[in-house]
Fold this protein.
Amino acid sequence: MSQSDNLRVYSFRHPAKCTKYLPNGSESHSRNISVTSCKNCTALKGEIDRLQRQLAKLSHQIVSQSPETNEHNQSSKISTGNQGADELSNHNTVESQTEINIQHDVCCSTDQVITSDVACGRDNICEQHSIDGTDNVIQPYNQHSLSVFSNFDVNLLDKSTRYSHHFGNRSVAYYGQYPYTYNGGSHVPTSALENQYLKSILNALDKEYPSFSYNSAMITRYSNGSEFIPPHSDDEDCIAPNSMIMTISFGQERTLQFESIRNANMTENVTVRHGDVVTMTQVSQSCFKHSVPVVNDCKNLRISITLRKILPPTSNVGPSASVTCPKPDQMTCPQTKHHNKPIADPQPRDFYCSPKMPRPEELRLTEYGSEDSDYDEDIFNNSIIHSYEKKKNKCSRGKICGVTMLGLTLILTVIVVTVTVYPYLPRSCDTSTGLLPGDIVPIHYDIWLHPNLTVTPLRFQGKVEIKIKVLKRTKCIVLNSLEQNITDIKLKQKDGTVLMTEEFSHVPEHEFLLIPLRAKLEEEEYTLVIKYEAEVRHALKGFYRSYYTTSQGERRVAAVTQFEATFARHAFPCFDEPAYKATFTISIVRDPEHTALSNMPVESTKKYNEHGLLEDTFEKSIKMSTYLVAFMIMDFTSRSTTTSSNVLIRVWSRSETEHQTEYALDCAKQLLEYYEDLFGIPFPLPKQDLVAVPDFNSGAMENWGLITYRETSILYDKAETSNSFKRRVVSVIAHELAHQWFGNLVTMKWWNDLWLNEGFASYMEYVASDKVKPEMGMQMYLQKNGMQRALSADSFSNSHPISTKADTPDSIAEMFDAISYRKGACIIRMLNEVLGDKLFFEGINNYLTKYEYSNAEQSQLYVAINETAKHMEQAIDISEFMGSWTLQMGYPIVQVKLTEGNKVQVSQTKYKFPGEVEAESPLGYKWHIPFWYQTNEETGINNFLWVSDETVEFETEENANWILGNSRARGFYRVNYESENWDKIIDLLHNSHTVFHEVDRMKIIDDLTSISQVVDDVDITRALDASLYLKSEESLYVLTGCLASLSRIIGKLVVVEDYGAEINAFFLDILEPVVKRIGLDSKPDDDFETGLFRGEMLTEAASHGYQPAVDYAEKLYTDHASTGKEVEANLYSFVYATVAMNCTAERWEAIFQEYATESLQSKQRYLMKALASTFDTDIIKKLLKYTMDEKMIRRQDARIVLMHISIGSYPANLVTWEFIRDNWEFFYREYGHTNSGFDILLESVIGQFYKESDIEEVNKFFNNKDDLGSVERGVKKGLEAAKHRKDWLDQNKEKAGEWFKRHFPQD
């Protein structure tokens, strides 16, 4: 070896040209490597790891085409070296041989920084370059290849020492190399070194066999004490004689047997008990070639990575197969000019045979995985390979010969058999559950981030220091990490001592980072330090980038986070499950023109470097889950205010929209003060930021102290924003601020109870919004947007219980649906109605106070509320009552029968479609039903009883001749009656509808339309008869709610062209009186309800051919196009959607240009709807293509555009499906693993089919997909809806058609 300031790297670039140092007949493949720094030799370990990962990827390409013969192991996975051999699969055969071998020698001193790049060169040889320009280059071991684990210090291995590890009937062997020094021409042994790998083996046994425990284990080579000086040889290697075998046996005590190969009769057995330290002394040295010295403190590091598949054995040979070796005194080593000492047994005992036979040219011992597993970097970390090559027919001067080929076959067979005992290996990293193991919890995170927003793609550097607490002794740290290039990992004790770890690895299917340890961690605190780099993602999750364009055309970028549910692991390695709460200190490097925000206020800002960068450090957070962590870098501006409890509230947005934040700021202040008073718990942070993000997947995210919003959910301009979006702003802010208590202060333990977060926040958004903005009618909106949509979503057999299993990122993403949100809100409202406000909120206070800053399950909520429920006149078991609604899917139909006299019979059955196969329910689909009712004699709203049995009977007033169940729609169920009672209710609607409350009128129509689809006794025509009263309905809330219910059945008939004119006449019979009453133009005295619904009524009327509305829309658009006169905000959607339905291609392009240049996203939303309203198929296809181009339509809006297109008409829906089908890989990649709403889109698109051929095509398409990710449930619900649509049309098409023709005949 040359001087210590040289680094040698041999990189085989071309398979055909780089075979000089490979076994004969091998084929090499590799990548170039370049080491850029080395402060001490251990720093090279990261480069070696990188080399292995590169080679692993290449090896997969080479060997993955091999035929797979073992079907039993199709699903097995090769684990990484950090797991030892945890996941190697049992097998009996392997396929044809493939080998990849990369060798490089490196040397450096302790303080130098060196670089080199050595490539495969000319003339079929590998050139060797010295960075100092000299000819002092390392000569590679062209006769010996050493293969090692990358996850332990290779400098601690002796190339002359054979370690044979026996676990039960499993045997694994390898050879290693100790470092040595060269000093003035004499060879001096190094001091005894701790064999960390042996320690890791022993400690691994700790986990598998608890009675076997070590504090430490020290081992050095055993010798009989005789002096040995290794010879020099120009031609051949010399294998030192002082080899040993280590045997670990099982039992209450463990025995280590050390057997000297130079003296077969010499053994030493050491019985090891708990806490013992095993030490053997070493006096001899390793053998080395004189051409490879190591100077001073520089350590020689030799790497040879070999991957191969072994030919399957031709016969099964048992353990009796053996080889004979020459007697020690017959074995010599080549003499040198300096030393002439005989060497006893210079060859490893198990690999050399009788002196009469030539030694084989090549011998290998391999531990490998299943032949049908994918080969990647794991195979290197799991393989212990010894490759020994000699020139053909060459021996030492003593002409010691090798084994016969038969002997080699026997040995190989034994090895193949013994390595199949994988179950007996110690398991240090158990990831079988897919969940974090729970033996380690985080206490505090220090997160440092340096995003670079000036390069493409945007990237960031990160470092996280996690203070962890070990709850149970373990040899493996398991945490979450995804799509990060980890560059360094250190584990420190409290005193700063760095502990030895094995090579880390990833488990992609569970998104795990595994860090195995060489010794078990005690039940103490440690600090885990991880350095990494990653991309600022383009997807709207994790740490991602958001773009916007200023009015001057300048494109700017912001870096934003979205971590719910499982995306914090994209931004920093962490324990990314909700129960692993910790505190956080975050530091961010930024440009001076940017602002950084996080959950907490900025504590300090300092100069980061001489280039003007700054580093912000934020105050230490309170204890919270990782999905609530948030940070961002942007150039937004803000407005601020302070609450009565001195909480700073700021609303941030693009500077050009700052004036649109005033309304949100006012709402946030009122709502935060309301919640503090209602819950009796102060907001725990000093500030609350609300940020309008240009690109955001959902409506908003409740990050503690830093709530992020889609712009449509927070920005309001009085002149340009409609009442609909004004209502949305207050309701979304109310929802997210409610989360600061429900979800942030108290968090569900696991995602199966997501409804504890989202159900409560969804309910409180109606309660709180109604409190601060009573003119908006939020309780009525709860019935239409909450109750009706939740009941509809929960009607299918592919629904799910509110609390259900969710154990993968995809299944967790599926939980963010109408069941968790809307049904959750409805059953919480039902509980509120049962208890009354006083007891309900007292119980909520108990719950929040008891579990603040921690996690809870639904059962703990019930216990807390039970404490207050005891004060009810009629005590109830909250757990039993609520469990019947959260632990089984679906809902009941309550059948009410009013008999002669004053008796009422009430029974329950599950709502289900004809022919539906019920999934098994733990409660048999029986619910504890709070039944409120009203009669002509009992008009009060608090008539109440419990319906828990199949049939309940009670008495009412004597003169009651009709009954209405579920008055005020407080219960999550539908009500059906005998025909006579239905007739009386319908008659009252036509003649005196105000007898019923507005909510009840909406509920009656909704129940009728839905029950008519599943109950034979309730005909569709009864629902249509009842709906005729709507021409007299004055409540626009009721009218829009009832029209939504009717559309679920009449929409099925729209595809039947025979009835189109009659259906239009039916709707105009209802809408024309309303439009004439409210007028086309806005009026100064319009209340909020009229302004909210005028545009919706006009749009409906125009879509059914009401010419005055069509003409009015054309006039307003023409005025705008010719004079620039702005269209009134509440009519904006009506005007553009109406003129776009039958517009020319030129007008459509003009509308699209308005969309492309519009800066207010709420107006963009209306323009999207208009663009999707066209009936021109060619234009639709163009718009569909735009959804795949972010420059045309934002990623956050693509799904919305697709939804608008699909619901426009049946032909448009068919084109939409074909487009999604043909571009499935794109859409699945972009939206298939997030809670993006893509599942809702698929459910809608598929659910609109009614032809058998269409349904069959969709079914076939998805049956050929192995994994549907987070959209699987949406696909299933869509197919189920399509089947029901087809069945309903088969049974009701003629009947419904005749009704329309009879009531609305057309010429």
Remarks:
- The longest helix spans residues 1272-1303.
- The two ends are 103 Å apart (CA to CA).
